[in-house]
């Protein structure tokens, strides 16, 4: 799946016991490992020699656009970083994160993954009381809430302000000389992990893959409603700042957004996708000649499908890895051209064959239609499409920029009708009960995009 669903971002941070001239390089390595979570902009905030926060950020990719601006040997003890794809707020550089503000609580930098459905309501109240917003990002709301909290205490104002937020947020907030505070919303929508850097300090990341790159150990995951205060490379405090809510972790992190070599929400992404593919194979329409995947997000599910069905797995589509994710393209024409540039069928593999093709999802159906057409032109005899997720029926309000309900192909068409629209012989979706059976803790996930049971009552649609 390329141009369909859009994740907001990835966050990464390091807190060390003493300044190190390798921290900037490690920030680059961490953000580069999370590049798949956002390609629109990236940035780093860090404490300088005078305990002031400096921010370096750019539009575009980490290696190509941010790296040339980083002073890689600058010694610092604390830094947070961000890769972004916007959901709330435009793509301009002013909205790129980390966001930096000066207020009565000192300098504060914010890196946020998620979305705040009550942002508009809070913003109206704050503007009525005289607040002046510098960006159109919903993340800025936090600093205004902190500024309006009586007193000058950084920690207490932050905790008080977090309790007023509603929605999805995994955040890293840096301030108060040398503190990094990591926290998640009470529902736990977005992932956030952390680990030790030997005896040097701690590192925080949206996914464990960035922790692996730095050789972090004792890896753990923040729980819903948990907050960790890290100061000078030591965890000063862990606390639960909210009453217990029903955990509603985003299952699409496992279906599509996270790298398969990551773990999120205490779940192996690879194992989940493999299990989903096996469950799909149990409901296959027929035994075909080969199983192929839509790379890369369909690869692991296709492997599981092949193992369960006994149908050989082959590489029927080749991906050009030098083309960015096509969901970045702004127009439908650009997205379709991006598909052609990114994928090409292997004629010798698919010609004259009946094919089971596995992808992670169908949302609008436009990308799938292009892929099916390419395979037909390459000589595929039959094409049976399998999706390793259920039908997408609802919009997301928790950090995924889904199309409007009217654009979701499954809201107005049956699988049989979808097959005709995209040119496949059949289309089969993973059943919701089978998706849940592929998880270790199915009751702790949000399935609102499939069943429209929204966890936050206020915004149930």
Question: What is this structure's SSE topology?
Answer:
Elements lengths: L8 E12 L2 H11 L7 E7 L5 E7 L2 H5 L9 E9 L14 E5 L2 E10 L3 H10 L12 H7 L6 H9 L5 E8 L3 E6 L8 E5 L3 E5 L2 H6 L3 E5 L4 E6 L2 E7 L8 E2 L1 H6 L5 E2 L2 E2 H14 L7 E4 L5 H11 L7 E3 L12 H11 E3 L1 H4 L3 E6 L6 H12 L4 E6 L27 H8 L3 E4 L2 H6 L7 E2 L1 H4 L10
Parallel strand pairs: 14-23, 17-20, 20-21, 21-22
Antiparallel strand pairs: 1-4, 1-10, 2-3, 2-4, 5-6, 6-7, 7-8, 8-12, 9-10, 9-11, 12-13, 15-16, 18-19
Helix pairs in contact: 4-5, 8-9, 10-12
Biggest pleated-sheet summary: 7 strands, antiparallel
Average pLDDT = 91
DSSP summary, beta strand count: 23
Tally of individual helices: 15
Strand line-up across the major sheet: 3-2-4-1-10-9-11
Low-confidence parts, pLDDT < 50 over ≥5 residues?
Answer: 325-330
Rg? 22 Å
Query: Given the C-alpha coordinates, what overall shape results?
Result: globular
Structural class: alpha+beta
Query: Termini separation (Å)?
Result: 25 Å
Helical residue percent band? 25-40%
Oligomer: single chain
**Percent range for β-strand residues:** 25-35%
Describe, in plain words, how this protein is organized in 3D:
This protein has 15 helices and 23 strands. It is of the alpha+beta class and 461 residues long. The strands form six sheets. Strands 3-2-4-1-10-9-11 form a seven-stranded antiparallel β-sheet. Strands 5-6-7-8-12-13 form a six-stranded antiparallel β-sheet, with no helix packed on it. The longest helix is centred in the middle third of the chain and has 14 residues, at 269-282. It is globular. The relative contact order is 0.13. Residues 325-330 have low confidence and may be disordered.
């Amino acid at each position: 799946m390329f141009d369909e669903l859009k994740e907001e971002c990835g966050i990464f941070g390091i807190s060390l016991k003493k300044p190190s001239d390798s921290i900037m390089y490690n920030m680059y390595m961490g953000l580069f490992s999370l590049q798949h979570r956002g390609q629109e902009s990236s940035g780093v905030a860090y404490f300088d020699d005078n305990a002031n926060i400096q921010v370096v950020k750019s539009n575009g990719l980490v290696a190509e656009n941010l790296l040339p601006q980083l002073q890689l040997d600058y010694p610092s003890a604390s830094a947070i970083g961000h890769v972004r794809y916007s959901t709330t707020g435009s793509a301009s550089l002013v909205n790129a994160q980390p966001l930096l503000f000066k207020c009565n609580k000192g300098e504060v930098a914010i890196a946020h993954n998620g979305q705040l459905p009550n942002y508009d309501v809070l913003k109206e109240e704050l503007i009525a009381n005289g607040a002046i917003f510098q960006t159109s990002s919903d993340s800025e709301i936090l600093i205004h809430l902190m500024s309006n909290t009586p007193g000058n205490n950084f920690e207490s104002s932050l905790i008080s302000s977090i309790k007023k937020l509603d929605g999805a947020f995994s955040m890293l907030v840096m301030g108060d000389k040398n503190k990094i505070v990591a926290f998640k919303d009470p529902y736990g929508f977005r992932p956030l992990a952390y680990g030790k850097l030997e005896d040097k300090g701690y590192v925080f990341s949206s996914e464990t893959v960035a922790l692996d790159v730095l050789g972090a150990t004792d890896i753990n995951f923040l729980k819903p409603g948990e907050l960790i205060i890290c100061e000078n490379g030591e965890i000063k405090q862990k606390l639960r700042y909210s009453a217990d809510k029903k955990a509603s972790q985003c299952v699409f992190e496992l279906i599509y957004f996270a790298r398969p070599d990551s773990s999120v929400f205490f779940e192996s992404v690879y194992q989940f996708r493999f299990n989903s593919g096996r469950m799909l194979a149990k409901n296959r329409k027929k035994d075909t000649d080969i199983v192929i995947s839509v790379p890369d997000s369909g690869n692991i599910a296709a492997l599981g499908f092949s193992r369960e069905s006994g149908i050989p797995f082959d590489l029927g589509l080749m991906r050009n890895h030098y083309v960015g994710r096509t969901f970045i393209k702004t127009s439908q024409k650009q997205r379709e051209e991006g598909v052609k540039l990114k994928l090409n069928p292997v004629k010798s593999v698919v010609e004259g064959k009946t094919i089971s093709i596995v992808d992670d999802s169908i949302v609008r159906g436009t990308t799938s239609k292009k892929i099916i057409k390419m395979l037909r032109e390459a000589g595929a005899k039959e094409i049976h499409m399998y999706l390793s997720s259920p039908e997408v029926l609802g919009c997301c309000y928790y950090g995924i920029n889904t199309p409007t309900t009217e654009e979701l192909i499954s809201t107005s068409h049956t699988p049989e009708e979808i097959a005709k629209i995209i040119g496949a012989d059949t289309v089969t979706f993973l059943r919701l009960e089978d998706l849940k059976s592929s998880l270790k803790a199915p009751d702790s996930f949000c399935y609102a995009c499939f069943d429209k049971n929204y966890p936050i009552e206020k915004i149930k649609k």
